[in-house]
Amino acid sequence: MADVDQKELDLWKNFFNQHPIAYQLMVHTKLYGPDTPMIVHKRLLGQRSGLSIEEIRNNYQLLLEFGLMEKTSGKELDRNHLTSSIKKTLKRRQKYHTPRKTHTYYQLSRKGELVIRNLLQRNTLDSMDER
Question: How many whole angstroms separate alpha carbon 56 and alpha carbon 37?
Fold first, then answer.
């Protein structure tokens, strides 16, 4: 599946038109790498747009169900490709000697990478970017 055909791309376009928050999460993850719903809420989508953490989590769950995202723990993240917000959190946590529960991060799956790359390249969601 090196590329997504036009029929499947149209289906994803309709899906993202119905779920604009899911599209924003996909674009954010493509640009900035894996994040947690809490970080997305605090720094990107939530406080400015009035979204709740639950809405963000529900959209992540929707993307997981369709196979566009996958969960990963903080221990499995590639430290060389992290966003600055995650690096700060991980550095702060390294100071503690007690084991701490790692957060669940969401990253694009292979299918998700292909879909969002094709949507962005073909500019099929221009109206979504304006929202």
Answer: 6
